[in-house]
Design brief:
The complex is a heterodimer of chains A (479) and B (486). Helix content of chain A is 36%, strand content 12%. Chain A has helices spanning 8-16, 22-40, 48-56, 99-106, 149-156, 173-179, 213-223, 267-282, 298-313, 332-343, 346-359, 365-385, 411-415, 422-427, 456-468, and strands at 43-45, 68-72, 110-115, 163-167, 182-185, 205-210, 253-257, 286-290, 391-395, 431-438, 444-450. In chain A, strands 1-3-2-4-6-5-10-11-9-7-8 form an 11-stranded mixed sheet, with helices on both faces. The two termini of chain A are 17 Å apart. Chain B has 3 domains: 7-303, no CATH class; 310-418, no CATH class; 427-484, Arc Repressor Mutant, subunit A (Orthogonal Bundle). Helices cover 38% and strands 18% of the residues of chain B. In chain B, the strands form 4 sheets. In chain B, strands 1, 2, 6, 7, 8, 11, 12, 13, 14 and 15 form a 10-stranded mixed sheet that branches. A 3-stranded antiparallel sheet of chain B has the order 5-4-16, with no helix packed on it. In chain B, strands 3-17 form a two-stranded antiparallel sheet. In chain B, helix 4 (233-252) links the parallel strand 13 (225-230) and strand 14. Chain B is elongated and about 95 Å long. Classes of the chains: A alpha/beta (479), B alpha+beta (486). The A-B interface holds A 74-76, 82, 84, 89, 92, 94-96, 98, 193-198, 200-202, 228-232, 308-309, 311-312, 315-318, 320-322, 332, 336, 356, 359-361, 364, 368 and B 43, 46-55, 82, 84, 86, 88, 91-94, 155, 282, 284-286, 289-292.
């Protein structure tokens, strides 16, 4: 069997036992990519030769020695492109390593491929990419989710063993759910954001997309910890969770937030989530109904705060120092206007305009400042819920992968794809999505476990127990 | 101040001061003036995608210290905000600044009378010693520097990210002279705390001025005009003198003052419209999400307090009170920490501290403007003052010793010997000279005895000449008078 089907943990065991060489993994992945990338289009950039060359020098004594990781195309890796799937970063090569990338390098990892995404991580389907759409390996007529759709499709489609993504409102978890892999959004401050091209600074977190919870924990161990370059990273030691999750679910109090189970929701999704909840109950956990009363405001709050921050974060793409520059501008204003109107796609423009508006004089009190207040209430919702339970259990996405093109003309409908994931970014909590079933038409369904802030250990332990008791993660996509 | 006594000006200043720190505000690049273009840059200060700011604690501490020196309230929790606007010298197209919660609020700058322009130092406005209130002091990052050539422009990002304080005054200033004194007094305090080199020529201290005029007695402000491109303290004064006169002339003609920004042209000696303020900038401030709030009550404030220097005003008081120097001398010393340290060392071992101040400030500085690098050790001045006061040499001799001291620095005692200058204070030796003088000048003796007191000077001159200037003049006077009245 091709090594592309294995996990980081199993490959590591075989590498250490000298059964295989890192180059073998790269070769098998390149063979898979040759066969399937044309359909899936998970990558924006691939350099197989470079990966093979670094594989020869891999140091197997390191925790991730010789293991290949794919990187979302918004993470700076020295010398490589970092397009954010935008025309505006055409020709840009990263002049430095993101801290997350540097930590993986130090742990011995290799990099194979940069993955497609919604432009600047703005979207839930990877259709907002200037570099082409990515298709779901389970059904190539459907979207892989987004914005880390390339990473999810690569991992699910056996084009990568594991990948990094970024999650601002669900961008790791939702594509993980729709592609049937494991997506972890750590607690805000757990992993340094230094070198991640910012979308919304107070919400962005880097996290792994993997096939198993164990692989997720393995990558989190390498990535977590304080970074002097990111003022918002938490000072506590990273070793508060184990590299290999353990533990049973016995005695766990699992909260089911009533606002996440609504009449009219997708029946197959609801059935699958309810049955997952029963599994926890059968295995010794207690189910508790809890309430997160400000949930209905989350999407509005998110689209005010995230776009406000984005309007400033994306101001630097002006054609002056790097990336695309308008040809023959007649003056400074023309340079700015043409560079940005030619370089950004429609969704990015929509969000910059919205963000600029909500910060404008005369409007910022009604929008930006009010949204900040409601964000505080959402945070309190989670804090009080976690006095009654240890983990929250919810669907990751209200429904399985939808067809390509279905929502590109309806941004509001697209925004609803993140209804179950957005609140955790606003509150700063960590959450994980893992497969918990399939629809009749063989589309994966994702289960979301949300932990208290810096409660990754409990979360990973419970997820691991559920995963190992089922074989959803072993299923292979048809594409 | 103005051509018309019926108008007064209302002036407020916004002063930007680059902090003296090892590294830039949010990255590890060296903070140094000069350097080849774009040689002191990194992904952070270039605003590369994905880079994040890491706050410089030294800069925060120095801003707090500045606040303490001006008596500001120091915020327990301060915050950074993003100020949004597009300009090529702004790497991120937003500036990390402070809006709602600056590090320092309130405070005041006392106007030092000797830091008014020389021609105004004797006026009432200088002697009033007014105190000018500050609104706030906040910390932000400096922008890059643009250079414009014939067809192209270039940007040097070395300056981008330099820690920059913005010091905002209340509209308390009334004259161009006060604005001049405000900047000088501000700078003097900044130098004393070693927080900045505050050199306006190097752009380390930059100043924007808001000025309006109103009839004396009116409470409401007139329409204000902002002045830019002010590159020296005297430039600020000239620009204000011009602009105040321009505004008064305009309102006296019944014209309305435009709310606008005007550029000072130093060569033309006039201000010109730069842009009108009809379209006010909306900077869309919001809290900087990349930076945590700054807690000053967890050691930062205490660290700043431990660095508090003796402030210029206190130093001047002490020098006048304890050393007997003049107010002017005290102000000169307070304005120059290196000179002042030198002086204090010189005055340390002598009772005659005011004399030492005279020597140093009048004679020494004229020949050696850089006391720190001078081979003349400061304690030599104390020794010289003691030699004069103790009667070993007279003041004429002291001048000779001083000249030698400058040429071949060594101990004044040794120089007195080397030059053979020791004053003759031996009564019997002086008696012989006096007898000779009386014998050789019968006419003067007669005149003196006839009541012409001045006649004794000829006899004294004779003695000084005979003794090659070494005779103790006071003693000679005494001996002659005794002998003549005998």
């Amino acid at each position: 069997m091709s090594l592309a089907h294995e996990t980081l943990a199993s490959l590591r065991r075989r590498l250490v036992a000298k059964e295989i060489h890192p180059r073998d993994i790269i070769k098998d992945l390149l063979a898979q990519i040759d066969a399937r990338e044309k359909t899936v289009h998970a990558f924006t950039h691939l350099d197989g030769q470079a990966a093979l060359a670094t594989a020869e020098k891999a140091d197997l004594s390191l925790p991730l020695g010789g293991l290949p990781i794919a990187l979302k195309d918004n993470l700076n890796a020295l010398g490589d492109p970092c397009t954010c799937s935008s025309k505006i970063l055409e020709g840009y090569r990263a002049p430095y390593d993101a801290t997350a990338v540097a930590r993986l390098r130090q742990a011995g990892a290799l990099f194979l491929g940069r993955t497609n995404m919604d432009e600047f991580a703005m979207g839930s389907s990877t259709e907002n990419s200037a570099l082409g759409v990515t298709r779901n390996p389970w059904d190539s007529t459907r979207i892989p989710g987004g914005s880390s759709g390339g990473s999810a499709a690569a991992v699910a489609g056996r084009l990568a063993i594991a990948a990094l993504g970024s999650d601002t409102g669900g961008s790791i978890r939702q594509p993980a759910a729709l592609c049937g892999c494991v997506g972890l959004k750590p607690t805000y401050g757990r992993i340094s954001r230094y070198g991640l091209v910012a979308f919304a600074s107070s919400l962005d977190q880097i996290g792994p997309l993997t096939r198993t919870v164990e692989d997720s924990a393995l990558l989190l161990s390498a990535l977590a910890g304080h970074d002097p370059r990111d003022n918002t990273t938490d000072l506590r030691k990273p070793e508060t969770f184990l590299a290999k999750p353990t533990g049973s679910v016995k005695g766990l109090r699992i909260g089911l937030p009533k606002e996440y189970f609504l009449p009219g929701m997708n029946a197959e999704t609801e059935a699958s989530i309810r049955s997952a909840a029963s599994w926890f109950e059968k295995n010794g956990a207690t189910l508790v109904e809890v309430s997160l009363p400000h949930t209905p405001a989350a999407i509005a709050v998110y689209y005010i705060l995230a776009t406000a921050e984005a309007s400033a974060n994306l101001a630097r793409f002006d054609g002056v120092r790097y990336g695309r520059r308008a040809v023959d501008p007649k003056d400074l204003l023309d340079l700015y206007q043409r560079t940005r109107s030619e370089g950004f796609g429609p969704e990015v423009k929509r969000r910059i305009i919205l963000g600029t508006f909500v910060l404008s004089q005369g409007y910022s009190d009604a929008f930006y400042r009010k949204a900040q207040k409601v964000r505080g209430l959402l945070r309190q919702d989670f804090e009080s819920a976690f006095t009654k339970c240890d983990l929250l259990l919810t669907p990751t996405s209200p429904e399985p992968a939808f067809p390509l093109g279905e929502r590109t003309q309806d941004p509001l409908k697209m925004y609803l794809a993140d209804v179950f994931t957005i609140s955790t970014n606003l509150a700063g909590n960590g959450a994980i999505s893992l497969p918990c079933g399939f629809t009749k038409s063989n589309l994966p369904i994702g289960l979301q476990l949300i932990g208290p802030r810096f409660g990754e250990e409990t979360m990973l332990g419970a997820a691991h127990a559920f995963e190992q008791a089922h074989d959803f993660w072993k299923r292979m996509p048809p594409v | 101040m103005s051509s018309s006594g019926n108008w007064e000006a209302v002036i407020g200043l916004e002063v930007h001061v680059q902090l003296r720190t090892q590294t830039k505000m949010f990255c590890g690049c060296i903070n140094q003036y000069g350097g080849a273009p774009n040689s002191q840059v990194c992904p952070v200060c270039l605003g590369m995608p994905g880079s994040l700011p890491a706050p410089n604690e030294e800069a925060i501490r120095r801003t707090i210290l500045t606040g303490l020196m001006f008596g500001c309230r120091i915020a327990n929790v301060a915050r950074f905000d993003r100020k949004n606007y597009f300009y090529p010298d702004m790497p991120k197209n937003y500036q990390i600044s402070q809006f709602d919660d600056p590090l320092c609020a309130g405070g005041a700058v006392g106007l030092d009378p000797f830091l008014f322009p020389k021609d105004l130092q004797e006026t009432d406005e200088a002697k009033a010693k007014r105190s000018i209130r500050l609104t706030r002091i906040h910390l932000e990052e400096d922008v890059a520097k643009s250079f414009h050539y014939e067809e192209r422009s270039g940007i040097d990002f070395n300056r981008a990210g330099t820690p920059l304080m913005e010091i905002v005054s209340e509209a308390d200033l009334r004259t161009a002279g006060e604005a001049f004194a405000f900047l000088g007094s501000l700078r003097q305090v900044l130098l004393s705390g070693n927080v900045s080199d505050a050199d306006m020529e190097k752009g380390q201290m930059r100043c924007d001025v808001n000025v309006s005029v109103r009839p004396v007695g009116q409470k409401e402000f007139g329409t204000k005009v902002e002045l830019k491109n002010l590159n020296s303290i005297s430039g600020v004064r000239r620009a204000l003198v011009y602009e105040i006169a321009r505004q008064i002339a305009a309102v006296e003609k019944g014209e309305a003052i435009q709310h606008e920004t005007r550029r000072w042209d130093d060569e033309a000696g006039a201000t010109f419209t730069m842009r009108t303020k009809e379209k006010a900038h909306d900077y869309r401030y919001f809290p900087e999400p990349d930076l945590l709030p700054v807690r000053t009550d967890q050691g930062l404030r205490a660290a700043a307090e431990s660095g508090l220097p003796e402030l210029p005003a206190a130093l001047q008081d002490r020098l006048m009170r304890e050393n007997g120097v003049t107010a002017y001398q005290a102000s000169v010393l307070a304005a120059d920490r290196i000179l002042c340290t030198y002086y204090e060392k010189a005055a340390l071992g002598t009772q005659h501290k005011a004399v030492v101040a005279n020597w140093i400030l009048n004679d020494f500085l004229a020949t050696q403007p850089e006391p720190a690098s001078s081979p003349v050790r400061p304690e030599f001045f104390g020794e010289l003052a003691d030699l004069v006061a103790g009667g070993t040499i007279n003041s004429a001799q002291a001048k000779k010793v001083f000249a030698e001291l400058m040429a071949n620095p060594s101990s004044p005692k040794a120089l007195v010997e080397k030059l053979g200058l020791a004053q003759i204070s031996d009564a019997s030796a002086l008696g012989v000279y006096c007898d000779e003088a009386i014998a050789a000048n019968p006419r003067s003796v007669e005149d003196y005895r006839a009541g012409k007191g001045n006649a004794i000077n000829a006899l004294k001159g004779f003695v000084m000449k005979k003794s090659q200037g070494k005779a103790n003049p006071a003693q000679v006077d005494e001996i002659l008078k005794a002998k003549l009245s005998a």
